[in-house]
Amino acid sequence: MSTPPDPSQVPGPGAIQTTDKVTAHAGSFNSAFTDVFNDIFKVVFFPDRIYHERYLNATRSARYRYNVQEVRSYLDITAMKGQVYLDGKLLGNMLRLEYGASRLVEQIREKQRFLKDGIIAWIQPLPDGNPNPPQARVKMLFDAWTHTFQVEIWENLEPPAGTTHAFSVLDQMGRNNAITRVPEFKDVMAQLPALINIQLAFRENDRDLPFGFAITDADAGWDNAFLRSHQEPVTPDPSNPENTILDQNYLLTFQRGWYLQVPEIAPVRYRNAMMDGNSNPDAQPDNIIDMRWVIQREMGGSMIFFHHVTIPPGRVEGNHQHIGSEELYYIVEGEGIAYLRVGDDPKTDVKTPDGTDVYQIESRLTMGLGYYDYRRLPVKPGSVIFTKSGGMHGIRNTGSVDLKFVAFLYHST
């Protein structure tokens, strides 16, 4: 197309879509979305319609327009894919990154330094079929409008023949500026709509300002997902470290949907999971449980994983405490006993008329913390155990068939 479509004719405040079909149906979409009968679903759909077009770098001049096609976020990281137009003519593809730096700030504070107005992003697009994906480091500058460190990587910085850039935008262009071009990403940027995955890590600036001392990689504060790893069934040997894949970076994916069959996912096996070695009376060589890691790095927000757990008859997942995270178990098959620390759910402290505990109390060894008193709570299909930060839980199969549940774990702070 020669000119980007009118943003007033498409879904969302300022959002610019690309196809005539979307534009044609924009009115009916907005009407259905704002209909009083659908009001309850705004909490579901509203985040996908947010697009802060007015805050992108070239919009300080009315001659430029953005066509943002995809937006993905993870915690305080946001990536946008789209196109840039100048005077109605296509300049090329654009990848914008924003980073709130909340975790990197903590890393720098430990070194008694400040982030100031710039950081460095390590970026590795992962084009399909490329065995040696490109990577590069790019300066990100602090933007008071979005309150993030940000950079826009453009496919091309040259204006179309016969025209020039607006001075207010040209002033932002070049190496280590807010609008830049990365030679290593030439082929990726040319095929940007097809790019599905990007890996990212962030470090402080290469100079300790205002003093000017060089900061090496070894000494720099890094936010590379804080020892983040994921699980893969490399070997069926229980608790084998080969099954833990160290990532040390963030993954943002532009894939829009997944269709998965859990039984077809090979499990990772664990011996005496969430226990202190041989000091736990439940620790036995054959106390092995299976975890099928359904979704891990693909989730946005603070979600860490969604997995499917199988505990054989008589086996147990040890009691443990969550700090800074929350976890939900939903039982789908079998029966057992879930352990919830006394007082964590006051409703489980109920007694019978003669003063007997409805749910018995059992003292159990808690990983790394010694013995605590727990309520023994019977679970079956449909039972839910939800543990907030600071809470303690565990679970045992007391039946004659496998106990199976799905678990969601996410950061709460």
Task: Please outline what is shown here.
This protein has 413 residues and is mainly beta. 9% of the residues lie in helices and 38% in strands. The strands form 5 sheets. Strands 1, 2, 3, 4, 5, 6, 7, 8, 11 and 14 form a 10-stranded mixed sheet that branches. A 6-stranded antiparallel sheet has the order 15-16-17-25-19-23, with no helix packed on it. Strands 18-24-20-22-21 form a 5-stranded antiparallel sheet, with no helix packed on it.
Q: Can you characterise this structure?
A:
It is a single chain. The protein is mainly beta and 413 residues long. The protein has three domains: 51 residues, no CATH class; 156 residues, no CATH class; 158 residues, Sandwich (Jelly Rolls), CATH 2.60.120.10. It contains six helices and 25 strands. The strands form five sheets. Strands 1, 2, 3, 4, 5, 6, 7, 8, 11 and 14 form a ten-stranded mixed sheet that branches. It has a six-stranded antiparallel sheet with strand order 15-16-17-25-19-23, with no helix packed on it. Strand 5 and strand 6 form a beta hairpin. The radius of gyration is 26 Å and the shape is elongated.
Average predicted confidence as pLDDT: 88
CATH superfamily of the largest domain: Jelly Rolls
Percentage beta strand: 35-45%
- Approximate shape: elongated
Q: List how many beta strands DSSP finds.
A: 25
Low-confidence stretches: 1-25
How many whole angstroms does the radius of gyration measure?
Answer: 26 Å
Q: What's the CATH topology label of the largest domain? A: Jelly Rolls
CATH classification class of the largest domain: Mainly Beta
Measure the end-to-end span. Answer: 45 Å
Number of domains: 3
Number of helices: 6
